Amino acid sequence: MEHENIDKYLLSLAGEYRVASELLKRGLNATVTYGHAKSADVVAYGSNRKAMVIEVKTSQKKNFVTGFYNKYPTAEHEHPDFWVLVQVRVDADHNFSERFFILSHAELSVVQAKRNQAYRVRHGDVTENQRLSWEDHYRLTTDARGVDNVLAADVGKYEGQWDRIVDACNQ
User: Fold this and answer.
1) What DSSP assignment string belongs to the chain?
2) Which residue in 164, 3, 141 sits closest to 84, CA to CA?
């Protein structure tokens, strides 16, 4: 399979528009927000006008850079309702395909914490059975090499779960 790299900015926009498109097809009003200082990538709402804020992360690789604990120092910090992780693949004939993983903010915090814990255990910073608080993850992330990310394999069970956003918008 030939790997065709898409410019990061264009890849990000493509992911946001694909998420909005999927939500529109499912009967929600959805719009991409613009600007570099935005607090939401996509906002969606249903017939009762209940809005959901969605963070979109798009990647052509097996991992998604979330920057999770860098952005959210506490569980109470303002955050999106949902995260949609979009994996874009290009085949040898230049055909594109996508995979969509839909998680609540709380679910991504758990997935990210597991990924970070495994990383920290490998590097000898914590023990395998050590219980870390949200604040511990934030502190360790701000001291860390690299940035928070999760693998597609970590979020596989959330693939294609669009009804979660649809249901939340129509409650």
Assistant:
1) ----PPPHHHHHHHHHHHHHHHHHHTT-EEEE--SSS-S-SEEEE-TT--EEEEEEEEESSSEEE--HHHH-SSTTS---SEEEEEEEEE-TT--EEEEEEEEEHHHHHHHHHHHHHHHHHHTTSS-TT----HHHHHHHHHHSSS--EEEGGGGGGGBT-THHHHHHHT-
2) 164
pTM exceeds cut of 0.85: yes
Q: What is the largest CA-CA distance in the chain?
A: 51
Size of the chain, expressed as the number of residues it contains: 171
**Structure-token pair, residue 124:** 């000898």
pLDDT tens-place string over residues 106-159: 999 999 999 988 888 888 888 888 888 888 888 787 776 668 999 999 999 999
Task: Tell me which residue of 131, 72, 132 sits closest to 105, measured CA to CA.
Answer: 72
Pairing of strands 149-151, 51-59: unpaired
